[in-house]
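Duplicate of #3305? Posting structure anyway:
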């Protein structure tokens, strides 16, 4: 459970502003209190659902419909449980919906983009053309193709970027992704003459870079994709609609549309530690430098402490699966040894 704060323009607050709010919460902020008459009031917009449905449909090219498509949509018992099936149905699709029975406790529980097994099974069971899984607040999306295979955010960004570039809609000559996006995506975009800027993990950093440098497509491997022509944050359904539009226009199955590039072998492992700063250990630094030299220009290494738990995340990717496995294992072993010494 968490709280998301947005500024008046609809963007997430900066790190500095969030830290300032945390400081105010943890200290005496009574001097900032104002009379009840000066506090805003929440009001219900009765037509909100209908407005959103029309907005989502308007992100598609005029007269494009999904007639003849069988779509399974998993709404994670969350925010999109009514609007997502409704949008797809109004566009002509045959809709099979799951994860549409929220009870206040089952959001994301064994369903949605964070647990797509139920979607995979349903797609195979009903022989659907595509499966769409949203997460609880519907800002992320994972797609399952007609063969029951998961398509991650990197492939989805590639589909959208290529489509928008071809139509002259892609701004700034590329997209924004995070350090976790696969090197295969970067190479694929480069082959089309497009760039890929990388930011730290977190959609907030992606959006900040997009705003500063004029990009209109960005996102994360997790499926949080931001299309700033339409909104200030991720919208899983709108992202899925863009991919469906490409499939309909090209008359190709999702498995072909969403196979833009071959991902490089990528390994991510987490090492838990009890205290100290393992990444400052001399041996750990030496092992990391050796790994970077071994990977050279044929791979990438990303090592970062988690922002929410005492864990070091070690990710490597490259053309050689064996080498990737080896360098990740060696770095993890070095971090564990350093953590043990500091304990």
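Output from current build:
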């Amino acid at each position: 459970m968490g709280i998301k704060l947005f500024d008046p323009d609809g963007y997430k607050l900066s790190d500095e502003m969030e830290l300032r709010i945390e400081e105010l919460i943890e200290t005496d902020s009574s001097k900032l209190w104002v009379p009840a008459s000066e506090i805003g009031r929440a009001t219900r917009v009765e037509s909100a659902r209908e407005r959103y449905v029309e907005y989502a449909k308007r992100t598609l090219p005029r007269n494009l419909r999904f007639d003849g498509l069988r779509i399974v949509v998993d709404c994670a018992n969350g925010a999109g449980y009514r609007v997502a099936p409704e949008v797809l149905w109004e566009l002509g699709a045959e809709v099979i919906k799951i994860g549409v029975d929220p009870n206040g406790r089952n959001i994301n529980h064994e369903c949605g983009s964070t647990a797509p097994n139920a979607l995979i099974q349903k797609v195979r069971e009903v022989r659907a053309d595509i499966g769409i899984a949203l997460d609880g607040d519907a800002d992320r999306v994972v797609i399952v193709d007609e063969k029951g295979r998961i398509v991650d955010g990197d492939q989805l960004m590639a589909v959208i970027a290529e489509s928008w570039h071809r139509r002259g809609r892609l701004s700034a000559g590329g997209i924004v992704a995070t350090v976790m996006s696969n090197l295969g995506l970067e190479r694929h975009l480069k082959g089309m003459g497009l760039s890929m800027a990388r930011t730290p993990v977190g959609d907030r950093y992606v959006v900040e870079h997009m705003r500063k440098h004029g990009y209109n497509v960005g996102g994360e491997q997790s499926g949080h994709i931001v299309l700033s022509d339409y909104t200030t944050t991720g919208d899983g359904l709108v992202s899925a609609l863009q991919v469906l539009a490409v499939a309909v226009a090209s008359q190709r199955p999702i498995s072909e549309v969403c196979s833009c590039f071959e991902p490089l072998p990528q390994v991510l492992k987490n090492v838990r530690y009890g205290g100290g700063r393992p990444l400052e250990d001399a041996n750990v630094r030496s092992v990391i430098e050796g790994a970077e030299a071994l990977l050279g220009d044929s791979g990438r290494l990303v090592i970062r402490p988690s922002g929410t738990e005492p864990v070091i995340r070690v990710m490597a990717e490259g053309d050689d699966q064996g080498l990737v496995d080896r360098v990740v294992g060696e770095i993890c072993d070095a971090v564990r040894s350093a953590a043990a010494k500091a304990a």
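Confirmed duplicate; merging threads. The chain has a mean pLDDT of 93. The first strand starts at residue 70 and ends at 74.
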